[in-house]
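Dear colleague,

Thank you for sharing your sequence with our group. We've completed the structure prediction you requested, and as agreed, I am returning the results in plain text so they can be pasted directly into your records. Please verify that the sequence below matches your submission; if there's any discrepancy, let me know and we will rerun it promptly.
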Amino acid sequence: MKFSTAPRKILQRGMVFPRKEASARLRFRIILESQFVRYFLTLVPFIAAGITWPELALPLGSAPVLMLIAVGFVELRILRLPAAKRKDVVGEAESAHALDTLNFRGRKILSSLAAKRGIQTGNLFLVVEQSDLVRLNPLTFVSLQKDEGKSRLVALNKEEREMIRTGLFDPDFTEQDLALANQREATFLRSVNFEARGVSAHARLAAFLDNAKDTMEPAK
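Please find the predicted structure tokens below.
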């Protein structure tokens, strides 16, 4: 996937389809990210009322303003935080600590990925996008993007996905911690930038030895 500049949003620009190993809970959470699905669920009571009491079907159908008010209330007041309440979700110090942790861990991951892939030029971006919906489990989408003349999304193998999964979040720094910091600042796209030429010789040697070890291991 190519685009003009990096970093770029992925989650909000297309439909995300989870891999086969994704849990049913995650699949349902991704479905809820669709505005069409949320609007439909908000309007279900109106549909149910029209079916249960047929005499109300015509008045409900001719009163779209009421439906718009219901959709707006759910989307803007229930599923999203008003601007006046954003500063109350987490303290400034906790928010700053979460973002510092993201940058530190992100750079460590990017250094390892660059060394393992033998990337020596260009800028790498670990792009972490989160949904802006509250009162739902955080939905986090992480992508690796590379900018070297032409920007593109880098496909990750299973080992690299696991490296990001275990290296970015853990009990000490969770998706919820980042989500609270993002809600406080109303910023839901975070990007960690790393110049590939900044990979240390030690990291490249370690990656070389790991790759050599993988190559020498007999197939099971």
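Summary note from our side: The helical segments are 24-32, 35-52, 57-61, 64-78, 92-117, 158-168, 175-185, 201-216.

Kind regards,
the structure core
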